[in-house]
Amino acid sequence: MSGLFNPAVVLLSGGLDSSVLLHHVAHDLNRRPVYAISYDYGQRHARELECARWQAEAAGAAQHRIIDMTCLGPMLKGGTALVEGGSEIPDLDTLDDAQRAQPPTYVPNRNMMLLAIAAAYAEAQGVQEVFYGAQAQDEYGYWDCTTDFVTRLNHTLALNRERPVRIQAPFVETSKAGIVRRGVELGVAFARTWSCYRGAARACGRCPTCVERLHAFEEAGIADPLPYE
Amino acid sequence: MSGLFNPAVVLLSGGLDSSVLLHHVAHDLNRRPVYAISYDYGQRHARELECARWQAEAAGAAQHRIIDMTCLGPMLKGGTALVEGGSEIPDLDTLDDAQRAQPPTYVPNRNMMLLAIAAAYAEAQGVQEVFYGAQAQDEYGYWDCTTDFVTRLNHTLALNRERPVRIQAPFVETSKAGIVRRGVELGVAFARTWSCYRGAARACGRCPTCVERLHAFEEAGIADPLPYE
Fold first, then answer.
1. Structure confidence by residue, pLDDT tens digits, B78-113
2. Distance between CA atoms of residues B12 and B58, nearest Å
3. Omega of the bond prior to B170 within 30 degrees of 0, cis?
4. CB B109 to CB A160 under 8 A?
């Protein structure tokens, strides 16, 4: 986290974690410019992309790219509930222990795909660091949100002979409540972040990410400004 | 390489190495079905994709997907000569030693991107193995064609808690001449493989991949049926 005017690429879904992360990175005056990158992979909750656009502007990102990866949706729908045409989004309280280890909302190898593309983009621009918003509570269900995952991926990227890119996940050991608190410090507009996997007009309050988000705000002692069903 | 009816995903560029690889994998009667996957990332030599289509059919692949990643071209053109709008493709004999370690035709983090997507596709379909055509002579210029790269990427993918996918690179220690010889054994139609980075009507014979291809055929004692300038 040191260095003068180190540019950074930030993976920005438009959800709570990555929006706070973007402001966290942009807040560091040594990190300039900040490039935000989002992906349209046919997710049901595409309205998170509108939030991403809003947050990129609010954080003063020098650039915000939304990469069109909608062609991946049909390829992946057999393996996840998260894209159009996939299975139903489950309520968190219906998941058994085995499902919690890799829930239906897991997208096959998603983070390696997104980080590999972000690293390519960074490298092409001479940027050495890519930030993503993995946090401690994602560990329960997503192998690609763990410290081990980041370490091993960096071990692979380190083979690059000229311009190795490093993945940074500064929240990987922070609880979601901790992220909410950091967002408060940074003045993040939580009403402009979207989490609900179901992607309807109001957040459902029952899918895994809604439940986690509501718990996190409760634990942080702050009201979530999003409208819920 | 064992197992009854293990399906496989094969990365198929339409070049010499991956075309021989596809036939090599499809030749193993225990590997069924074989899914071929190609990428359109705005490469200058998009005619390799026509060859990919032809080879997928010739090898009896159950499916051939061409993933549209043309949106990546503009993002990457600052870092490579290989996409439209990038720098000029150099002749191999103009490259100095530093350039040979990571030549202008290197595409930032390309193989991690392509393999990450192929692994996601495999996982979504319940396929456990992804094959790609890294070969020994690519090691000189491409960190993402090395045994270390494959080992470290597999170490990362092994964290998957339910359906870990494994990358296989059976030619990673084979010379390009050895691949030509394997192609002869398998009856691969070399005239339907495309290598030249310049992508004109005839192969240039001077860019890095043309020079390597011509050497490989010469070493194997076989005529390359492609028309050269």
1. 667 666 677 777 777 777 777 777 777 788 899 999
2. 13
3. no
4. yes
What is the rounded CA–CA span in Å between residue B89 and residue B83? Answer: 10
- Specify the CATH number of the domain B8-220: 3.40.50.620
C-alpha span between A18 and A120 (Å, rounded): 19
- Nearest CA distance, A100 vs chain B (angstrom): 11
Q: Where do the structural domains in chain B lie, given as residue ranges?
A: 8-220
Beta-carbon separation of B159 and A148 below 8 A: yes
Hey, what are B102's tokens? 């990571």
Q: What are the angstrom distances between the C-alpha of B29 and each of A167, B2, B224?
A: 41, 10, 29
A192 CA to centre of own chain: 14
CB contact under 8 A, B116 and A107: no
The ipTM value here is: 0.89
Q: What is the DSSP string of A95-164?
A: --HHHHHS-TT--TTHHHHHHHHHHHHHHHHT--EEE----GGGGGT-GGGSHHHHHHHHHHHTT-SS--
**pLDDT digit string (tens) for B15-48?**
999 999 999 999 987 778 999 999 987 777 778 9
Q: At what angle do helices A47-58 and A16-27 cross, to 10 degrees?
A: 10
Measured between alpha carbons, how far is A200 from A142 in angstroms, rounded to an integer?
24
Nearest CB neighbour to A112, from listed B75, B80, B156 = B156
- Residue A65, strand partner residues: A37
The reported pTM is 0.91
Judged by CB atoms closer than 8 Å, whether chains meet at A71 and B68 is answered as yes
Q: Please say whether the beta carbons of B14 and B52 come within 8 A.
A: yes
Nearest CA in chain A to B76: A124
The DSSP 8-state label assigned to residue B64 in this structure reads E
